[in-house]
Write a structure and sequence with these properties.
The complex is a heterodimer of chains A (about 150) and B (about 475). With about 150 residues, chain A is mainly alpha-helical. Chain A has 6 helices and 2 strands. The longest helix of chain A is centred in the last third of the chain and has 21 residues. Chain B has about 475 residues and is an alpha/beta fold. In chain B, helix 6 crosses helix 7 and helix 9 packs parallel to helix 10. Chain B is globular, with a radius of gyration of 24 Å. The chains are: A mainly alpha (about 150), B alpha/beta (about 475). The interface between A and B is medium-sized, with 25 and 38 residues.
Chain lengths: ~150, ~475
């Protein structure tokens, strides 16, 4: 059973790895030399472009972090800021909370032209599950030794 | 004796009263502009836009020095690269720009870039891999050119081609390269996984420093401002500025451990180009990148280098921001709206000032005309539209003013067009009413902290000049 868990874990870790290697790109607004002055941030969620509009900047406030938590994180320096930004930019849409403010789309957008993983991701998940089941069945039949 | 003692006591008392007041005077920040028209071969065009720069309140004019255009394409026999009078040099356009800038009361900052082909290093790859002028510019050749440049603009050089015109004006500031952490400006950045550009740039910088100071001991050599963002991977085409600075100054790792450094970097003024992705109040996400609020990352490295003599002369280095800009909409549909454009300018001046910057250079004075590809390939960051009409950013450059709430108090900062009285006003339904009055000195900068609750719209006024109004929402910081 330990091997199955290890195998499944390894597969799960392997699946997002290509996405993690891709940089997220942030470009200055209207920048004519955007290929020089953009900000890249490694992310595990694939290639994303945060929207530099006010909505994106407010996403931290309206996202998963409370204002106090966000402030505390920012006071921790660059690492804290990076974490606060990452949370804001990967948080999904949220319903109106105690503040009664409407839900706001998370501040992420795909890089134009980037298709993402599309149907590949569920396919990989299904293959992973099938492999784990096959391994488990084979071991019960004694085809795989401990 | 008793009278002398009484006199001394009086003097001491007077000093005690005066010194705190002097110490409380805010530092100044010099405002500068870069503009392609400053280097135009057309004297009329050049003069017109230099005059407009002065009118905008600029004190510095950043003039590009294209080494490969001034120097001969192939050095003729007997060419003396360190001699400003060598006939193979073509200084005509630069002479005109320097003379006209000084005539307008602007202090030129000469930014040297782009090596002639004969001054590039061996093993040059194709131009696609390393743009012309960027491949291992040879330090000795750069040092000779820097010496000729500083001698020509030492204030005592009469051009033999036009001896009746008197000596050319003096230039005090020389900047060595720009954005040398990008492969579009310097190559190679990496050899395999080894970062090599900072070491080569150190040799370039030191040669230029020696050349400039040999010709003009009182001149100031400025490090080329680095681009703000890099790729945090070995072999990338952009080196993160913190990595570049650490390597340039022989400091290792996040703790800045001094490394062996046989030839420490030599410069007088540190510089950076904190061109921003978002607004000027939001720092870079990567800790090795340096945006407007992150100057402390560089200042820490430079301070450590001074303390460990990894930079010479080992004394405090002033810091300049030598390139900032945002494109505006209109005219560029992808630019920021005009009011935000102006606000970003004022906010970035303040953010850099409060981090110790001594100079701020905005690119450009005037929008460039749209190219064949529309606005994407040209810059619309001007204080003026292409036709010369002012944008709100023009006023923000002349009279930057910031109002925000910090720690429960109202912070008001500004840089007035001239020394004298400044009135800060608050908008009410009945019009503008006085909120505060302050006397600014030669630095022209004021910083006030007031107790004023609630939302606020404020502006600063000096005579007929008034700033772009700033809005402070209730209960939180200023606009972003």
């Amino acid at each position: 059973m330990g091997k199955i868990a290890t195998l499944a874990l390894l597969l799960m870790l392997a699946v997002p790895a290509p996405a993690a290697a891709v940089a997220r790109v942030v470009v200055p607004p209207g920048n004519s030399e955007a290929d020089q002055y953009f900000q890249t941030v490694p992310t595990a969620t694939g290639p994303r472009t945060p929207d530099p509009s006010k909505d994106a900047r407010d996403a931290v406030r309206d996202g998963a972090l409370s204002a106090g938590t966000e402030r505390a994180l920012r006071q921790r320096g660059p690492a804290g800021l990076a974490l606060a930004t990452a949370v804001a930019q990967t948080a999904g849409p949220r319903g109106g909370g105690a503040s009664g403010r409407p839900a706001r789309q998370a501040a992420v957008a795909r890089i134009p032209g980037d298709p993402g993983m599309g149907t590949l991701f569920p396919l990989l998940l299904a293959l992973t599950a099938a492999a784990a089941l096959a391994f488990f069945a084979a071991r019960r039949r004694g085809l795989v030794s401990r | 004796m008793r009278r002398a003692a009484a006199l001394l006591a009086l003097v001491a008392l007077a000093l005690a009263l005066v010194v705190p007041a002097a110490a409380a005077t805010p530092r100044g920040i010099r405002m500068g502009l870069a503009e392609p028209a400053f280097g135009s071969p057309d004297p009329g065009l050049r003069g017109e836009w230099l005059a407009r720069a002065r009118g905008a309140g600029a004190e510095l004019a950043l003039l590009g020095v294209n080494w490969s255009a001034v120097a001969p394409s192939a050095p003729p026999a007997g060419f003396d690269a360190a001699d400003p009078a060598d006939p193979a040099y073509d200084w005509a356009a630069l002479d005109g720009a320097v003379v006209d800038a000084v005539a307008q009361g602007l202090a030129p900052v000469l930014n040297v870039q782009s090596a002639p082909a004969w001054a590039e290093g061996p093993g040059r790859p194709s131009a696609a891999e390393a743009p012309p002028g960027t491949w291992m510019p040879q330090p000795a050749a750069l040092g000779s050119f820097a010496r000729a440049l500083a001698a020509r603009y030492s204030g005592g050089f009469a051009d033999p081609a036009d001896p009746g015109a008197g000596p050319l004006p003096r230039v005090r500031y020389f900047q060595v390269w720009a954005e040398q952490n990008l492969s579009v400006h310097l190559n190679p950045l990496w050899q395999g996984r080894r970062l090599v550009a900072p070491r080569h740039y150190r040799a370039m910088l030191n040669a230029a420093y020696a050349g400039v100071h040999a010709a003009q001991p009182g001149a100031r050599v400025i490090v080329g401002g680095l681009a703000p963002y890099g790729d945090a991977v070995a072999g990338g085409s952009r080196v993160p500025p913190v990595w570049f600075w650490r390597s340039l100054l022989c400091l290792r790792g996040a703790r800045l451990k001094p490394a062996r450094c046989p030839e420490p970097a030599r410069f007088d003024i540190a510089a950076h180009n904190p061109i921003d992705v978002w607004g000027p109040r939001r720092g870079a996400v990567n800790s090795a990148d340096v945006s407007v609020p992150d100057i402390g990352r560089l200042a820490r490295i430079v301070r450590r280098a001074v303390a460990t003599k990894r930079v010479l002369p080992a004394r405090r280095k002033p810091f300049w921001a030598t390139e900032l800009w945002w494109d505006s909409n209109p005219p560029d549909p992808h630019g920021v709206p005009l009011r935000r454009h102006a606000r970003f300018l004022a906010e970035s001046v303040f953010e850099l000032w409060r981090q110790g910057a001594g100079a701020y250079v905005w690119w450009y004075l005037r929008d460039q005309a749209p190219g064949a590809a529309g606005y994407a390939a040209t810059q619309q960051s001007g204080l003026l539209y292409h036709d010369g009409a002012p944008k709100p950013a023009y006023r923000a450059f002349q009279f930057p003013f910031v109002a925000r709430r910090e720690r429960g108090r109202l912070l008001l900062w500004g840089r007035a067009p001239a020394p004298g009285a400044v009135v800060v006003e608050r908008r009410t339904p009945g019009g503008w009413v006085r909120l505060a009055r302050v006397e600014v000195g030669r630095a022209r900068v004021f910083l006030l902290r007031l107790d004023a609750a609630g939302p606020l719209r404020a502006r600063a006024r000096q005579g007929k000049d008034s700033s772009v109004p700033a809005t402070v929402p209730a209960g939180k910081g200023g606009p972003q």
